Structure formats: structure tokens, C-alpha cells
Amino acid sequence: PSKKKRRWKPYSKLSWEEKQQFDERQSLRASRLRAEMFAKGQPVAPYNTTQFLMEDHDQEEPDLKTGLYPRRAAAKSDDTSEEDFLEEAAEEDGGSDGMGGDGSEFLQRDFSETYERYHVESLQNMSKQELVKEYLELEKCLSRMEEENNRLRMESKKHGGEATETRVRQLELEVDRLRAENLRLLREKDLSGQ
Q1: Domain of 37, in residue numbers
Q2: Residue 38 lies in a domain
Q3: Which Gene Ontology terms cover its molecular function (predicted)?
Q4: DSSP 8-class letter at 97
Q5: Number of domain units in the chain
């Protein structure tokens, strides 16, 4: 046997460095073969790899290191809801994902799923006393929100009546003005027709 012959190892048993060296050798070999084929005038196909997909993929991946974030109850005030949190995240994103409406829906769904998973994990890691405390805090928040909602409804009914009356007056004045203009235009039409 030839002394130059390299020992062969299955790809799955190569170390990380060996895999990188192997992949580099393969890509160099493929680019050399493509150059030779191009020089001969034969059709050339790109190197068969998914690397171009990874390069095209958005490099701005969200940071999902959950250990860096405090619990939701501590991080957010009692006045904010999950919808507010999601809207804030969408505003911070700025909509510049380049994917259009469907892409933003996908990102929204992906974020919601990730957020739910993190929330479930954090609840699973809590002790019984912490869960009871969290539940009581949420109950307080819910009752405050219900009171605020009722107060706003009462204010809107009280002020809504006044606002409706002023709006009706404005619309009546507008109708009167339009009727007068309509009569003027009809007179002008009759005069021009004679």
C-alpha cells in the first residue's frame, strides 16, 4: 500500500476542527472544478451547500437567553398587559424585517410561542408560595383593570352625551349650509338655462 494514503475517518467521528478543514477542502475542490468546467465552456452549477441560504438569512436573530430577563411580573408594571408588551416589541422592531405583512405575522407568532414557553418554564420553576403570590398579584391587577374599565365607561357615557350633542349641532349646521348652497346652484342653473 502507498505510504501517502491518508487514513479515512467517517465524517461523524471527526472533531470540530477536522470537520472545518474537510469542509474547506471540499469547497476549494468544488470551486476549482467549477473553474475548470467554466474554462472548458461547460455549464456551471453552484456548489451544493445551504451556506448561501444561511448567508441570506437575517443575521439579527432575537436574543432568547432567558436567564438575563427578570420575571414578567417584576419586569412589567401591573398596568400593562401582554398585548401592550407585544405592541411595544413590534414598535421596537420597527417593521423593518423586510418580510412584509406575512413575515411580521410569522415573527409575531414566533415571539408569542417563545414568550409562552418562557412564561411556562418560569412558572414551573416557582415554588408553591411564589405561585400563590403571583396569582394574588394577578387577581389584584385584574380587579384594578376592571375598576378602571368601569370608570372609563362611565366617563365616556357622561362625556359622550355632551360630545354627541355638539357633534349633532355641527352636522345640522353643515346640512343647512349645504342646502343653502344647493339652492344657490339651482338658481344659477335656471338662470344660465334661460
Answers
A1: 14-46
A2: yes
A3: 7SK snRNA binding; cyclin-dependent protein serine/threonine kinase inhibitor activity
A4: S
A5: 1
Distance CA 26, CA 39 (A): 20
Tell me, what amino acid is at 153?
A: R
- Give per-residue pLDDT as tens, 45-92: 776 666 666 666 666 665 565 554 444 444 444 445 555 555 555 555
Residue 31 lies in a domain: yes
- Look at residue 41 and give its three-state secondary structure: coil
The SS3 call for residue 98 is coil
Say how far apart CA 29 and CA 23 lie, in whole Å: 10
If you search the block for the grid coordinates 475542490, which residue do you land on? 29
Alpha-carbon torsion angle 117, 121, 123, 125, nearest 10: 180
Residue 110 near residue 97, CB atoms below 8 Å:
no
Backbone phi and psi for residue 42, each to the nearest 5 degrees, phi listed first: -85, 155
Q: Is residue 32 included in any domain, yes or no?
A: yes
Residue located via cell numbers 401582554: 82
